[in-house]
Here is the input.
Amino acid sequence: MTVFGDTIALYDCRKPLVIARDASIKEVLGTGEELNDLDVTTVGDRTQITTCDDSGLAYVYSLESDQSFKLMHTLSKKHSNICFKSRFDEDHYLYTAAFDYKLVQWNL
Here is the structure.
């Protein structure tokens, strides 16, 4: 899985040069912001994906069985500048970092 511009692309590991599915996040979010980072975690049988953007927002999606993305959370009001990093830890907490010098822990 990778992120570029406003698109998340899923790859088939058996054919790494072939994009299995890509989705413009504009379709999901309705925003024109570029995505800056991507992280994936599995909670039970559900795959969650997090991204962040230039407006300081972070997003959490679930990857549905049909390989589509469903927006679960829009995380806002913590960063006042470009959010450049979003990561899940082993306990499934989400951390975001931005150019406002803040590191935020989100308890989803």
